[in-house]
Amino acid sequence: MLGVAALVIVLAVMSGFEASLRQRILSLTPQVEIQSFNGSIGDYSAVEIRANSVPGVAGSDPFIIGQGMASSAYGISGVIVRGVEPSNASVISKLRGYVQHGSLDALGESHTVSSAATVQPMGGAVALGSTLAEKLKVKTGDTISLVVPLLAGKNSQLTTKTGHFTVTAIFESGIAFVDRNLVFIGLANAQKFFGREGRVDGIEVRLSALDKTDDVTAQLRTLLGKSYRVANWKEFDQAAAAGFEMLRRVYALVLLMLIGVAAFNLVATLIMVIMEKRKDVAVLRTMGATVADVRRVFVLKGLIVGATGTIAGLVLGAMGCWLLGRYHFIHIEKKIYGISTLPVEADPLSFAIVALASMILCWIAVLYPARQAARQMPVEVFRS
């Protein structure tokens, strides 16, 4: 009972951690991303139309991305600048749920840029992660400077472009890398700032369901041809996905061994029963019970004990999952995990697999005692 309960609760918590991490990662990173092998995408509206025609695609969002340096009067930090369309719900609607201070509405306002030699005030808006805002010691309404490296001129000389932006939103996603490094600005502002008017670096595709990831990716690759690179979230987050899958398997294996230890305790229990019931077994044999009949009796007894423990463990585990999900009485460090309580996602399939594994172990454990009981010779029992 305890082994089964522990296993289903741990699997539910591990599934909850994986789902929470995946949700937070996918809220600010593409589910499927389209990029051109030739550089930036010029006629990105046409590519969007073609992508949106694929079954399973819920929407698309063109973006510009680049690296730079953000500074304020109190700090400086390297950042990744991402330009998105404020009117497109693909990214902004997800980001809006993580905004702690300010609003994203101002991201669509236009601004002017400046060269490295002269810096002119700019009216553009930016959204910063909470960790970055804390590092720069800024709040909503404050101004920061962004400096980005660019290649310009006939010889592609390295130059810089600088501008002042107003912080209009501060968000906290719970993902340390995003909150520490990411800066959002409006797509039109980003195109001007990076000198890519009418072009984008890529198109983010939002899916109607994550289980359609592989199908949509394959269809987009076929539809767009070899000129475009199509990648999905599974390829972006292979390390995180593989890590959680490995942890879940290790925990499941360890706790399954715990169930195995409990199941094989049935061996000792049934052997004790056999010693107590030797005369009864002998009487049954003399009355016509076959070896198979006796073996079947003890297998059935062991399976009844195992099934009782398994069912009780599943009920106890379900109650534990419900209590953890309802009352959140176990707290964890939010700065490390991005969440303050244990996430729980109970999967009926996990319950079924645990129950099946438990019963198989119980069945294996009772085979030896049942065989020993069936080998009792009535004559020897009565003689002793």
Report how far the terminal alpha carbons are from each other.
38 Å
* Rg (C-alpha, Å): 31 Å
**Which strand-content bin applies to the residues?**
15-25%
Q: Counting H and I runs of at least 4 residues, what is the number of helices?
A: 14
| Neighbour order of strands in the largest sheet | 2-3-9-6-8-7
Provide the succession of SSEs: HEHEEHEEEHEEHEHEHEHHHHHHH
Walk me through the structure.
The chain is of the alpha+beta class and about 375 residues long. The protein folds into two domains: about 1-15 and about 240-384, no CATH class; about 30-235, no CATH class. Helices cover about 55% and strands about 20% of the residues. It has helices spanning about 1-30, 45-50, 90-95, 130-135, 175-180, 185-195, 215-225, 235, 240-275, 280-285, 290-325, 335, 350-375, 380-384; strands spanning about 30-35, 55-70, 75-85, 100, 115, 125-130, 145-150, 155-170, 180-185, 200-205, 230. Helix 1 (about 1-30) runs antiparallel to helix 9 (about 240-275), helix 1 (about 1-30) crosses helix 11 (about 290-325) and helix 9 packs parallel to helix 13 (about 350-375). Mean pLDDT is about 85; it is low at about 115-120.
Task: Sum this structure up briefly.
The protein has 384 residues and is of the alpha+beta class.
Helices and strands in order, then pairings?
Elements: H1 2-28, E1 32-36, H2 44-52, E2 57-71, E3 76-84, H3 89-96, E4 99-102, E5 114-115, E6 124-129, H4 130-136, E7 143-152, E8 157-171, H5 176-181, E9 182-186, H6 187-193, E10 202-207, H7 213-224, E11 228-232, H8 233-236, H9 238-276, H10 278-286, H11 291-327, H12 334-337, H13 348-374, H14 378-383
Parallel strand pairs: 3-9, 6-8
Antiparallel strand pairs: 1-10, 1-11, 2-3, 2-7, 2-10, 4-8, 5-8, 6-9, 7-8
